[in-house]
Amino acid sequence: MTARRLKIVGEGRQILRKRILRHMHAVFADNADACLVER
Q: What is the pLDDT of residue 16?
């Protein structure tokens, strides 16, 4: 039971990490566009 639980938690963390990275990339892209517009 514990092993299955750890596996599920690990998969959840990977999904969370991908989601955070995607969100950060989107924010960075928006900031880059804003900087380009300011110039």
A: 93
